[in-house]
Amino acid sequence: MKMIIKAPAKLNLGLDAPLVHPNKEVEWEMIMTSISLCDYVTLETNDSQEIEIDTDSGFLPADSRNLALKAAELFFKANHINSGLKITIEKNIPVAAGLGGGSSDAAAVLRGLNQMFETGYSIFELAKFGLQIDSDVPYCVYGKTALVSGYGEIITPLPKLPSMWFVLAKPNVSVSTPKIIRSLYGTELQHPNISLLTEAVKRQDYGEIAGNLANTLENVTGELYPQILTIKQRLVNYGADGSLMTGSGPTTYGICRKKVGLIECLIVFLAFVGKYIWPDQSKLNN
Predict the structure, then answer these.
(1) 168, 280 in Cβ contact below 8 A?
(2) Which one, 8, 87, 138, 183, has least CB within 10 Å?
């Protein structure tokens, strides 16, 4: 049996870490959305009784550090499945970019295996599986605009975003999310007003959304990689209505209300970031 599943990238419209515990575990409050930039995950059963993974990216590990492989192993163990499985990942989402590529691949594996083996798990139950893998996996199982809180397990669906365009720009650096998270304890963080942004999304108020994009990790990662803050400012200078680093970075995006604004922003910005740039429309995946 063979199945191909899309694994869309995620963006944070808002991200706060209201509680950072002494053991370095973090409780989050985030607004997340999914976009059309995606990986493609192929699942194919065989008679080997082993799970193997292959990818066209040289940056992904082929062992239990790979979240997609970890998801398959967890799912098989929980359901006493002895079939062999080959996972093939076509990577389009940059690695270590703050776009949730690994988490989305893992979520795609969970969704695909649930359908393939007819195990009948609800989205809520798959999200509980996901929390054992990574804090972003529960959201990626849902894959639609939502308020995410707790350790990533509390998903509150929100209305789809008003039509808008995203310009994604990734500087030529990779960021270790665990390293950023470990640095949070004892750090004085700026806490954005996620409630204000949530209400703007509920009202589908584009102007208020653009004006309230905020990420408490932005200055933390920006101190290590100042080019992130430079990109953020240039996106606004070149026509974006708002700009933000997503996740732990380094990818930064700008939003534009209309396609003409997107094109103008792309033309003047392309020379600055070269190939690390993607246009994306919000309504495609919400």
Answers:
(1) yes
(2) 183
Q: Annotated binding site: which residue ranges?
A: 94-104
Q: For residues 99 and 6, give the distance between their C-alpha atoms in angstroms, rounded to a whole number.
A: 15
Is 205 labeled as catalytic in the residue annotation? no
Domain 165-284 has CATH 1.10.260.40: no
Return the domain boundaries, the chain: 2-157, 165-284
Q: Is the pTM of this model over 0.90?
A: yes
In 3D space, the residue among 13, 34, 30 whose CA is nearest the CA of residue 211 turns out to be: 13
54 flagged as catalytic: no
Q: What does the pLDDT look like over 82-117, one tens digit per residue?
A: 999 999 999 999 988 999 999 999 999 999 999 999
Residue ranges of the binding site for ATP: 94-104
39, 134, 136, 280: the active-site residue:
136
